[in-house]
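Why does this matter for the project? Reviewers at the last site visit asked to see concrete outputs rather than summary tables. In response, this paragraph embeds two records directly. Each consists of the residue sequence and, immediately after it, the corresponding structure tokens. Nothing has been edited or filtered.
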Amino acid sequence: MFTTIYTHEIKTWFKKPLFYIYAGALFILAMLLSAIAVGVFDSDNVTVTSSIELNSAVGIYSMLGFFALLTYLLIPSIMGGTIQRDFDNNMHNVLYSYPLTKFTYLVAKFSAGMTITLLVIFASVLGTTLGFYLPGANEALVGPFEIMNYLQPFLLYIIPNVFFYGIIVFSITAFLRNINIGFMFVLVMIILQLTASSSLQSMDDTYWVELLEPTGDAATYIKIRYWSPEEQSNQLIPVEGTLLYNRLLWLGISLIIFFAVLFGFNFSQNPTNLRLKPKKAQRAIKRNFGTIQSIKMPKVTADFTFIGQLKTAWVLAKSDLKYIVTGWPFIIIVVIAFAFSLVTMLVSGEIYGTGILPKTWLMLSIVTGLFTIFIYLLIFLYGGLIMDRANSSHLKQMIDATPTQNWTILISKFIALFLMTLTLLLIVMISGMIIQGYNGFFDFEIPLYLFDLYVINSWNFIPWILLTLLVHTLIKNKWLGLLTLLVFAVGVPLLMSAIGVEQGQFIFNQGGSSPSPSDMNGYGVGLPSFYTYRIYWIALGIALFTLAVLFYRRGMGSSMKERFAFAKARTTTTTTATIAVSLIVFLGIGGYLWYLNNVLDEQMTGKEREELQVNFEKELGKFAGVPQPITVAINTYMDIYPETRDFKAGATYTMVNQTQYPIDTLHVNYPDRPTTIEMDRKSEIVYDNEDYDYRMYQFESPLMPGDTLQFSFTTENEPNTLLKNNSPVLDNGTFINNGIFPAIGYNEQFEIRNTQVREKYNLPPKDRLPAPEAPGARDRNYLGPNAHWIDFEATVSTSPDQIAIAPGYLIKEWEEDGRRYFHYKMDSKMLNFYAFLSGRYAVLKDNHKGVALEIYYHPQHDYNIDRMMKGLKKGLDYYNDNYTPYQHRQARIIEFPRTGGGFAQAFPNTIPFSEAIGFIADVDDESNDNVDYPFSITAHELAHQWWAHQVIGANAKGATLLSESMSEYSSLKVLEKTNGKYQMRNFLKDAMDGYLLGRTTESIGENPLMYNENQQYIHYQKGSLILYAISDYIGEKNFNNVAKRFAEKYQFKGAPYPTATEFVDDIRAATPDSLQYLIKDMFETITLYDNQINDGSYKQLHDGTYEVDINAQVIKARSNAKGKLRYKNEMNDSITFTPEGKKKALESLPLADYIEVGVFGENDEENDQPKVLYLQKLKITDINNDFKIKVDEKPVEVGIDPFNKLIDRNTQDNRRNISEKKE
């Protein structure tokens, strides 16, 4: 009987078009995605590159994980539908009368559902595989075909997860006979999965999340999160540890549920009742004993007017809304979504484990993320449910017979879905206010909540609601309608992007993204564009809605021919006019947008930009290195008009021919805006290419060595329009740097650096930066060509209620013609690197040892200005004491809006600082898990006044070691001196995590620190780790003396500029012979450790002291640029150790390393950190190491490299709690 039922179910599904639609949709979508990933559409789009092989086990796991997520949403339709079919067709009454066993019936039904579901997913596997090998695929992105790369994710994840989701949906359907509840369960589980995944980044101990997350994704992420591109390309996912436990646990839970269903299911007529309190039975009592009873009928007044139909629509909408929001599935989903919102908001915005104040804009930012996707899913789902509600309630024909018009019914559905959306948006507001109150922050800004959620974001959902109604009108099966909407939402944007269509007006409901609020600048200039695009898409939505009215299923006819006949018959002047007007609005706005984006301001596709870069290099690359005059002085002006968001600017560059050769041609990169250029000697334009914004001026008489050139220009923005902002000026908080000004000489930064792209266009191989010893590398600094150290003067004007700031000292301030003017002049040489700022600021002033300190801040952002002022003072003290004297008499911090970026940047004596970092940080001084990052970022940016603005590296590999790494190290030392060493472990651990994650996505190749090519994860995160560690090993004073001597040697020096190799040589000279290996490990190579505590115990001695036994493992390896590890040195030597009970030996580079071993006691009462009982650097020569250490107090924990000073991909096992040794 099992075979009979199973075969029947399989044959039934094979006869249903739905199976082929599901499988075909996933097959096509998978093929499209994989084809895009391997560059099949490169001829139409920007070149696709990847540092990993996409058909590796990790690549297939990621790809199949996405399609599995889609398939989970189809499980209710497939596995639930397999058993629900018997109830819908009332066949269960017949089947249950047969001599069937529960086991046979349920196992056959479930097995058939599993088979069909896995076949649907397997279609995505076939599509993915085929896509990898389509004509045009980039062979460099696809490795050899390995069957295990496909089998492992399928066997390890897909089958167990389908079994888990399937058995629960199957059991819900079997007991409750309601597929919808099964779908809600799937949706709830997906939300929980996303919540668990989003919380991993902020958790130190992820064990329980890894174990309890049902799909295994969390455990897999932790297992492979630090894998290099080489490992991602060539290794299977190791099934061990928590990943193995997770798979076994959830397989066991699935089996328990499976057997519970087998034992709990009954062949009963009615579904299981889940009411907590069953309804009391009521006895029917006959009251009409007479033969005639008087009945008073209510008076009914029929109203078929337009207003009457609207009233009917409102009544129907309330009924549908009640059906949605009072149903247990929706209530459960809302509770889960509420919890998801709370968790997401709690961890949002953390830096170094320190949160930011829960400003309302931060709480609202959740709407633009996963929560929006969640709302779209519910629109797609409940759109189908309420469209099918009458049919599923067997009231369809009765309702169809009423005189209620089609548009009335559909309007009611729209209202219900829109009100459901508003209800869901309310979750954001409520959860946001709860988080704010929980954190003691009661500046709720309720008007901002209401405006952002209901006046802005709610508009995003209207076009999708209208499209949803059309899709579910045309497609009778609600699950097929759901799949259609999902494929349309995911697949169409991908396809359009693949074929080079990038403008939002051609991709449904895109364009004019929702503007984000800023405390300083409100919503800026984004609202007109946002509403224009929304009206544009709503106009199309109205046309689609009208089509839904025409094709609405009513009556018995259901074939497409009949549907078209009905639609033709229903077409009236009103429907025709509605479609015509909405399409006229849609096409009219669309034409205007196209005119703006393609005629007035031609938009370039990614492909066109890529080809432009290629042609730029091919045509002009020969001029790289052509001698040009050097800028020695700049006198500039900047007129800022916040009211109209305009600017007018100009400058005079004083340039000198400092070469030994006559210069007959000046190469100018000019801005893409109205610009005039004049010079004090005659010249003519011999080359002018507006595509490259590149011009060559040939002098009538050459500029001889030592000659001076006055180069003057003016520039201003194109006029702003309603939909196009052509200016960086803001109403409040303008921040403009000198990148908008003309630059002299060929700019290599515009060249393509990706190796794969260069190879495609037959460009010669080229590193991102030249080698330190390369010819000409030291002739310029890495910030830009054709300027060394300059004299600088600027006049900045703005509105009378704003303060304008530029580097230098304020010489004069005045008002003229209703505007405010500020004249700044620097009294010493500075880099050709400056900015202009303007805003309505409050100002905090102080003076520290003769240096004027100023913080210009938004009046409402005074939360952390004292910390920042303290950072300036402590930084000045440390840097003056340990390096060279501060070169300025002033240091300023100026706040700018978060919409301009979340960073701070150091210009000469001037530090623009985003409102999103520092100013609104929520630092808890009583918590040891917090890092005072307003203080540390301030110290970092101040350190740049030494490490960049005194010593600037050559335009060569390793340049940012001398600026970013040294500034990060300097700020760490200031933080350590001020707040103590206990904050260092959190900071270094965060830096370690940033570096290890950064190298997993390296697109070209990882470089050692001293040869880094402006790779942020190296010069920031790794640089801070390495320099902090080396100063700890050789001594802080010793290291600082090296830095001081280096700064004194190169302070304000021009060409030849210093290199990182010189600096490392100086460190090497100050390093003892026993520690020389550190130079190679830390600076010259990519060296990784695997340190861990295997075991530890203690016993108390007779004298009251404690003897601690520690067993630790130390493994050292080197990595190449792609992340391939090597355990042998240049002489091919290594060491090995085979642990007891293991067959495979551990291997390591030869060791003679000094590594810290620590013993820790109970938490110190002063800082609530474990008390350090013992901490020494011990020489390690073996992989397996035993230590016997004596301490005076009771030990609690032991560690090897306990403060994360060495690069270790798993720092969780560096420390371990110990217990007393049993005798």
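We now turn to the second protein, recorded in exactly the same manner.
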Amino acid sequence: MIARSLQFLLRSLLLLLLVLATILWLLLGTSTGNQWLFEQARQWIPGELTLEHWEGNLLDSVALEGLHYRNGTLNIQLDQGRVALIPRSLTQGWLDLEYLRLGSLLISTEASEPSDTAPSITLPDSLSLPFGVRIETLDAKEIRLNNTRIVGDVHGRRLVAWRRFQIAHLNTTTVADTRLTVSGQGSLTGPITVDANVDWTLPLPPSETLTAQQASGQLQVKGPIDTLQINHQLQHPVTVKSEGTIEWQQDQPRLALLHQWPAQPLPLNQTPVLTLTEGTLYTRGLLDTLQLDAKTGLIRDKLAVAINMTGSRIDDGLSLENLTLTQGKQTLQANGQLLYGPLRWDVNLQGNLNPEILSPELPGQLTINGNSKGRYDNNEWVLSPSHLKVNGQLRRQPLSVQAELYSQRQRLALTAAARFGDNQAHLKGNLLPDWQIDSTLKLQRLNQIHPDLDGNLSGQIALRGELNSPRASGQLNGQQTGWQQWSLGTLTARFQDLGLGSQPQQLTLNANQIQQDHQQRLETLDLTLAGTRQQHQLTVSATQQSLTLETHLNGALDTTLRWQGDVTQSRIVHEALGQWQQQQTSALTLSAENQSLAPFCLRQDDSALCVQGTYQADNHIQVQGSVQSLPLSLLSPLTGPDFTLEGRLEATVAIEGSIDNPQGELHAQTQGASISVNAQDAPPPLDIHTLSVHSQLKNRQLDSQLQLASSLGEARATLRHGLQADSPVQGDINLMLHSLGIIELFTADLRDIEGTLRADVELAGSLRAPHIDGQIQLLNGQALVPALGTAISDVTLVLSGSPDGDIAVNGQAIMGDGKATLSGSIQPHPWPLSLSLTVSGQNLLVANRPDARVLLSPDLQLQGNLEALALTGSLIIPEADIHPVELPENAITVSRDQVLVHQQGEDNGSLPLSLNVTVTLGDQVYFKGFGLDATLGGTLTIEQKPQRPPQLNGELVVREGRYRAYGQNLAISDGRLIFQGAPDNPGLDIRAIRKVPSEAITVGVQLGGTLQEPEASLFSDPGMEQSQVMSYLLTGRPLESGSNSDANRIAQALALYGLEKGSGVTEKIGDKIGVDDISVGSDWETDDASLMLGKQLSDRLYLTYAIGLFDAVSTVMLRYTLTRSLHLEARSSTEANSLDIIWEKELR
């Protein structure tokens, strides 16, 4: 019986345990059971707890969605979560979670009533938990408190808490994107202790002043929570070490911290560098009465400033006992109080300061005195009169500033006056509650204010309107106003209510003589603005020489400073390019984030120039442009008046991507293109069948292809290179010209040019220093030189490139029976290009005309670079036969003093060439002309320095010859032209003679002096007077044996010879021919020189005969004297006849 009862009891107990296990499994291991447990727990939890979705079970893992708990002012929301429980740990008193993953956890509390007293804070004796909690992995998206993100991106590992706590690793982002990495441990039972380390990193916003990108540090906290040992190391942006204790006394912390830093440069974008000296900061006491004591300094270049500060925290504020900045004898001191609740202050400032410590561009010495006292409560100002006075020198200019600020009937009034050198400014009015400021500017020397400014500026400016939306009205006038390399001749600006408000506003700006680096860019610039910020019109016009530009903009500017509108009625007028007009409106958007322009086209007849594009704040651009049917004739000003371009140009361009790495494509081609020469006997126009360029920009590489085809030949080129000057270059050029007639377009000296030009070249190196590998060949070349009557044939020229960059030059040509050769090399880099060439040859026919046939044997060397070339060597003229065309007898030469004002000067833009060439005349150099028939010889050296006239040294010798003068053929016994400098004025040493065998007499002429001022003298053997010598030269017989016509010839020859001053000679000739006067001069009507013969026929009648020395015009004049001042004169010549009555009066 007992056994059966015991069996029954055991079976019942086992069944009960099985039922309990089943129930426990149903409650913990099924989703339905979990939800039932959750519903039961809701009844025992204070407040309201709801759940939108439950998935999984507690024995495995649970996924939650929409968990919401509310209890009074506390509101907690969890959008989603997932947890994995380790059940076996429950029996050991641990809530062990394999992982806990939370989405967004939102905690909000309702605002409580404000309290006048700060709540007291009492530290707990124990924080131990009733059971242990262990979380192997913790992840949370974010935790927000009252819609403020407290932490985010939480990642934790091995988090344990019971009677002690341990954090193996916790990483999270908190306020201001501060990244925290926490590890530590401690006791949660009394006394509570902490031993933790925190590494933190705070990203800093971009700044033009601060170069540091982040702040970071390490914090170590150790000890009981009522007496914590603190060690902190600030690593960036500066280095600061802090250590001390934080004790809990009187329900608030007491600090005893020492902060120390070594000397270090501050991370500021400034030059010279600003250095923080070694320093300390002590913070001691309770928070309510915290004492501050700091010592440090700043150093910039050679300036060092010491900084000392003492102060303390007082009720409702801060008491600044002393703040002193000291640099040598310079001091700046401040003291006072700053209180809050409501805001109140009482601050004094005084000192002597050199502003150079603030900026190296501000040297000087200033005395500063100021004070301010007031309060601000409930938007109401109470400000006692506050003063600021600054006196001294700044940039060696006197500076004086006086300002007074005070409140009056809730208005903040300002009165200020400043004088800096010759510049003055006055301000008066109210700052608050709105703008009512009037100012007057008289800035006579802007360069005293800043060295980059120049000129003067004066005017009046008035500010009106609300504090956050001021309006400016007034006028400004400037003379020679400039900034850096830009300057304006005059500037006038008139404006009314300019600002960002919605009020109507106007602006008129006029400027002229806009220059950059003393080069005029615009003659005039006019700008007119009218309308409101939301809708206004802007007109801009500018002129420069023959160019006029005008455009109109209609648009609006919103509160974010984004301008959006249209560009319309634009036009460009140019004297040579004609008028281009905009026919369709183009939308334009301008803002700090992006700029965009809708298709904008300027049209002329069937031609159009179009562009459109956008620019984003991330430096992303998109630009498209096109050229439609552009007449090539518009480019004629670039080619000059000697050429005419015909045809049209079509082109498109597209660029997209970042500014640093854009992608783009360009395509351009011509249609019906031709080029012709504007000259008589010009070759026919050159027709260009195909001329196209295609370029593609990708990955900072530019690939280009060029194709050219014409009746003369074709060319193809490919090129690949980067955008930097040192980027590598790859490419090739293929050229085949079957005819060289194109050369005739660029020179009138060559005709019937034939030959072929072929190039097969590969390019390498870089843009800065390209290398050419391959050959450029000119074969079977020939041409006529009409001006010289010669031909050049069998021309061969080969340019051979090499990998090292040098180009070898070899060539030859046939000129007559002679052969010319060219050899040398060209070094394209480094720039400027350098070369070394040699030209040689024998008996080259360089002239073959009726008036000249010349052979030349050169041996010349050309060396140097494009900035300094030197031509040296020798030129031998072995043969020459020169017969110049003589001028007619009545031709008049132009005086060397005459200047043709309409004639353009020589072009001085030629290469800087220096010469040192020796010219030698051979034994067969003949000259016949101008009465001279001679064989010439001699040697000349031609020297010339760049930008200086040439110099000739040496002599030309007349080896033998004859000279025809005075109607006779004279033999030249000696003849030399001596050059000692200027080539146009050699010295003369020429002796011409005539022998009279019948009388054993030799007469002649000796020429000396210079070519421009010759000196002539007659000689004879045996000696005789000048008239007899001239008579023998002209007639071969003495003067007594000649006729009257011979005497006339002799007199005229003597006049030309310059011997008319000899009275004895003229008297003898006059006696011979029966006249009273012989002279050389001009009458009062003309300037032509004449030989004049006069005869007094009676007391009142005088006869004159004159023959021109240069024009051979004969004139007979008969003068009859009526009174002492009245004459009757009759003239008759081969050109005209006249009868005049002449009245003469001598003025004294």
